[in-house]
Design goal:
Elements: E1 3-5, H1 17-26, H2 39-42, H3 57-74, E2 77-79, E3 92-96, H4 106-122, E4 127-131, H5 145-154, H6 164-174, E5 182-186, H7 195-203, E6 209-214, E7 222-228, E8 233-238, E9 247-255, E10 260-268, E11 274-279, H8 283-286, E12 289-294, E13 303-305, E14 313-319, H9 334-340, E15 344-348, H10 354-363, E16 368-372, H11 379-390, E17 394-398, H12 401-408, E18 428-429, E19 440-441, E20 461-462, E21 464-465, H13 474-477, E22 478-481, E23 487-494, E24 497-502, H14 517-528, E25 543-545, E26 547-550, E27 567-569, E28 584-587, E29 592-595, E30 615-620, E31 627-628, H15 630-651, H16 657-665, H17 669-686, H18 709-717, E32 722-724, H19 729-749, E33 758-760, E34 772-776, H20 786-797, E35 801-805, H21 822-832, E36 839-841, E37 868-870, E38 896-899, H22 903-907, H23 924-943, H24 953-961
Parallel strand pairs: 3-4, 3-5, 5-6, 6-30, 14-15, 14-16, 16-17, 17-24, 32-33, 32-34, 34-35, 35-38
Antiparallel strand pairs: 1-2, 2-31, 7-8, 8-11, 9-10, 9-12, 12-13, 18-21, 19-20, 22-23, 23-24, 25-27, 26-28, 28-29, 36-37
Helix pairs in contact: 1-3, 3-15, 4-5, 6-7, 10-11, 19-23
């Protein structure tokens, strides 16, 4: 029967409808009154009794309908009530899935359970009620109907997986002495891993019937994972395997304030249960994403929480390589960038000034800064980096020739504060022609190392290494060692941050580690444990994190829970979500770990009919179509009552034409005028001409020129050599005259016609315009400022070459840097503030000795001091060390040249091309060799390694001949 009444006895009120009809007929509506003056005379005439006119039939029918509706509403009508499900006094067992997948069906489950309990009450049957996502100590019954309804109202869906096996065992214990039970299982329609064992335990109850009530079929999407890729945030979605239709799901990304940062669509192909979506937004916005949701879904599996481990860590890269190493395979950062690009956001400093580079990197707030073979940093940059490390940053350094040379040049043997250990000077060669040792393999990581569970390939070998000075805490700071026990990676915790050092350079000239996957694993581990992630990131220690904020059943982040246990992470393995550890955030507001429902191996399969001995059936859930008609009937009665009132006013003449005309005639003309004026004002305000600004007819041309722009343009017209203004007029004049003499000789012997030499102040002037700068070192001149030295250092890193001339060969400095003259001490002090590569005397087979003239040495006004340049790259390749190779160091131009032979004194000429100063000894050919050496230097800095191609001439001629 589709319609019933909860109080059918009240329908007896329908018998009063005839009485109501009689009353309505006897009480006509109030007649309309119209003023008519002649009737005043008739009013004085004696009145006669008159019978009232009858009420209109349609008004009577309307009022009878209104009275009938009120009677029906009071009787409590219900449309399509639930049918009686069972009869008999056998126990009724109601088992409900209240996990994450039940949230969309919960109203349906509650309706079904209520009717089951109501039927049990009518049959005086005991009720057992239990849910599959409740704690183990939850009672299952028996309950009275009132108790069962009360417990049902207390149940709610939880954002956790269901535990059917534990629930079935709990029911088995509760029903041990209760035969012939009837089991009604309201399930979420999904299969679980332990379903076979769960239904086997439920079969032991020996129920007379088991009815699996299946939920209504509707789309169910879950987020299986979120990956922060290099160019986008990739979201993986999953749906039940029996859902085969093509579908779309809207994916939204939210920040921790609940604001939408990005949206996209994920498309499920036909017959596919997986889909992916990409949120293509800048990394800065991606790092602000705290939650990703499938918007149509209202359950916990449609929400994916992100923590610091999901964010792409920003890594700053800084190297001191020369401009000629910009080629990818020759760049000091090539292997580092290739290894870290897939899982980090790499940022580089474009400025070669190390102080400015450090500032620009720190402004971008990286988690890790990597310094590749940087020997010395300016004092200000060192202070800023130390402060950044103390606040939680990770500084990762790689050794190399420059760092080894910096240790060799440290006269005070002080430890670099940006290194975890004190280093020995120089480097250790393993293997090669001049070494008795062989390349070393890498030993397993010690127990105190963060790398102890990383397996490195056995074929990785180390060819060169910078050794650490022995110290009592060296073993504790050694995170990875070579097979002979010497450290390969050392690290030290400093306040909230860390200092890490690879004792090798990040290229294959030092080891084969950059070519292996182990190099990626080592860098990933350092990155994952950097900054705030060190509290919740990858570690082998056991970490206990309190619950911070948890998801509710609808997938929303709630406040701090009371019943959730702390999350225990052992050896870097995060446990799966459960009743005790629901999905959410664990930790603190500053550092927390996200625990999500889905994993990479999760599948959603439909629940199949279990194999049980009793009467098992799978029936669809009865749709909650029961409708209580009491409210709608009362609402309809109220509408009819309002209609009756309007009809009475109409019959009484309230809406007559005369009364309406009277109302409009009383409206003042002033009010009408004001109304029209207001309408016109509003129209003008909305006009597009009202807000249109007056456009300027002419646009002024902005003049962004600067006072020195023309001078810079003039410098760029021709090649100019430069010299440093020392503040000593005699020294500055000698530098200018000497470079002028060299320019004249270069113009006579080559096609280059240099412009007049220009004096520069390193602290103020732009240095990039000049390929070579001559700096006479004078111990009496003011010491250069830190800014000047930083700019000279940046100039050398950008490809420029500086010639430092101490001019003190006669004072006993016959070996250049090894001397102890005041000028040499001043030079050494200046170089200590710069990032200088390893230096070595220019050999006979150096490119510089063959660039234009064949030069046995490089004399100046004096002879005897060697010319120092960047040391050749050492190699263990015997073929590369062959004496047949005509040139060395052919991969770049040395940024620094050092001599004590007073080059400018030998180049200086008067207007008649006569030398200003004699050579010592007084040999005319010495001046010629000095000028030729100057030509080689100019050609060297301008053309670079073109002479190195001579090594390939025989092979090229042979190929052309063939």
């Amino acid at each position: 029967m589709p319609l019933i009444f909860t109080a059918p006895w009240l329908l007896a009120g329908l018998a009063t409808l005839p009485v109501i009809w009689w009353l309505l007929r006897a009480t006509p509506p109030k007649p309309a009154q119209e003023p008519f003056p002649p009737l005043a005379i008739l009013a004085k005439i004696a009145r006669h009794d008159q019978e009232a006119s009858k009420s209109p039939w349609w008004l009577t029918a309307l009022r009878l309908l209104l009275a009938a509706l009120v009677i029906f509403a009071v009787a409590g009508p219900v449309w399509k009530p639930q049918p009686v499900t069972f009869t008999g006094t056998q126990p009724v067992v109601i088992m409900i899935d209240n996990g994450w997948a039940s949230a969309p069906h919960w109203a349906e489950f509650e309706n079904q359970a209520q009717w089951l309990i109501t039927n049990a009450e009518k049959n005086d049957a005991p009720v057992f009620l239990t849910a599959t996502a409740e704690p183990q100590n939850t009672a299952s019954g028996p309950f009275t109907a009132a108790q069962a309804l009360e417990r049902l109202q207390a149940l709610e869906p939880r954002p956790v997986p269901v535990e059917r096996l534990a629930t079935a065992e709990r029911l088995n214990t509760a029903l041990k002495n209760t035969p012939e039970a009837r089991i009604f299982y309201l399930n979420d329609g999904l299969e679980r891993a332990q379903d076979k064992q769960a239904f086997a335990a439920l079969d032991k109850v020996q129920a007379i019937s088991v009815q699996l009530i299946m939920p209504e079929s509707q789309p169910l999407y879950a987020i299986q994972g979120v990956s922060n890729q290099q160019d986008a945030l990739t979201v993986s979605l999953l749906r039940p395997s029996d859902d085969r239709k093509a579908a779309r799901a809207r994916i939204s990304a939210y920040d921790n304030q609940g604001r939408v940062l990005a949206q996209t669509q994920a498309e499920f192909a036909e017959n596919s249960d997986k889909a992916t979506a990409q949120l293509i937004i800048p990394v800065e916005l991606r790092d602000d994403i705290a939650m990703v949701r499938a918007d149509q879904m209202r359950h916990a599996a449609a929400t994916w929480l992100l923590d610091d481990n999901n964010r792409r860590r920003r890594v700053g890269l800084l190297d001191a390589g020369n401009a000629d190493k910009a080629h990818s395979l020759l760049s000091p950062l090539h292997y580092i960038s290739s290894a870290m690009a897939p899982f980090t956001d790499l940022i580089s400093a474009n400025d070669r000034d190390l102080a400015q580079s450090v500032d620009s990197l720190l402004e971008k707030k990286p988690s890790v800064i990597i310094l590749s073979d940087i020997g010395r940093l300016p004092e200000g940059a060192t202070t800023k980096l130390l402060k950044w490390v103390d606040e939680g940053g990770t500084l990762l350094r790689f050794a190399g020739p420059r760092l080894a040379a910096a240790q060799s040049g440290d006269q005070n043997n002080k430890r670099d504060p940006l290194l975890p250990v004190q280093l020995r000077s120089g480097q250790r060669n393993l293997g090669g022609t001049l070494s008795w040792s062989t390349p070393q393999s890498i030993a397993p990581a010690p127990e105190n190392s963060p790398f102890r569970n990383i397996q490195l390939p056995d074929d990785v070998t180390v060819l060169r290494q910078v050794l650490a000075e022995p110290s009592p805490d060296l073993m504790q700071k050694s995170w990875l060692n070579l097979a002979d026990g010497t450290p390969l990676i050392t690290g030290e915790n400093r306040a909230a941050g860390r200092l890490v050092l690879f004792h090798i350079a990040p290229d294959i000239g030092w080891s084969s580690l950059p070519l292996s996957g182990g190099f990626v694993d080592l860098l990933r581990r350092i990155t994952e444990t950097s900054g705030a992630q060190s509290a919740t990131g990858a570690t082998d220690q056991t970490i206990t994190l309190p619950a911070y904020r948890l998801l509710d059943a609808a997938g929303n982040l709630a406040g701090q829970p009371v019943a959730a246990r702390p999350l225990v992470i052992e050896k870097g393995k995060t446990p799966a979500s459960s009743i005790l550890n629901p999905p959410g955030l664990y930790g603190t507001e500053q550092a927390h770990k996200a625990l999500n429902l889905m994993t990479s191996d999760t599948v959603l399969n439909p629940l199949s009919k279990p194999d049980m001995t009793g009467n098992v059936s799978m029936v669809p859930a009865t749709r909650a179509q029961t409708i209580n008609l009491q409210g709608p009937l009362f609402a309809l009665a109220a509408l009819l009552l309002a209609l009756d009132g309007l009809l009475m006013l109409w019959i009484g003449g309230t809406f007559s034409g005369r009364r309406l005309r009277g109302f409009t005639s009383k409206t003042s003309g002033t009010a009408k005028s004001l109304l029209i004026l207001f309408a016109l004002s509003a129209a003008l305000a909305a006009s597009p001409f009202a807000s249109q600004p007056v456009q300027a007819q002419e646009t002024a041309v902005k003049d962004d020129s600067k006072p020195n722009d023309q001078a810079k343009i003039d410098v760029l017209d021709v090649t100019h050599l430069a010299y440093v203004l020392t503040g000593d007029k005699a020294a500055d004049d000698l530098s200018r005259i000497g470079l002028s003499g060299l320019n004249q000789f270069v113009a006579d012997k080559t096609s280059l016609e240099p412009g007049a030499p220009i004096g520069v102040d390193p602290e103020k002037d732009e240095l990039a315009f000049y390929p070579m700068i001559y700096w006479p070192v004078d111990e009496k001149a003011p010491f250069p400022s830190e800014k000047a030295l930083q700019r000279i250092d940046a100039y050398m890193q950008q490809g420029g070459t500086v010639i430092f001339d101490t001019r003190d060969q006669l004072s006993g400095n016959t070996s250049g840097l090894s001397g102890s003259s005041p000028a040499t001490e001043r030079l050494r002090e200046m170089l200590d503030a710069m990032n200088i590569p390893p230096l070595a005397p220019v050999a006979d087979n150096h490119v510089l000795s063959k660039t234009f003239f064949l030069m046995p040495d490089f004399p100046g006004r004096y002879r005897g001091s060697p010319l120092w340049a960047e040391a050749p790259v050492e190699t263990t390749d015997t073929a590369d060390q062959s004496a047949d190779r005509p040139v060395r160091n052919g991969d770049g131009v040395s940024p620094i040249l050092i001599t004590a032979n007073d080059l400018a004194g030998a180049w200086a000429m008067d207007e008649n091309w006569q030398p200003l100063y004699p050579t010592v000894p007084n040999d005319p050919m010495q001046r010629i060799y000095a000028l030729r050496g100057g030509v080689n230097m100019v050609m060297y800095v301008l053309t670079g390694n073109y002479k190195a191609d001579q090594v390939h001439v025989p092979a090229l001629l042979e190929r052309l001949g063939n």
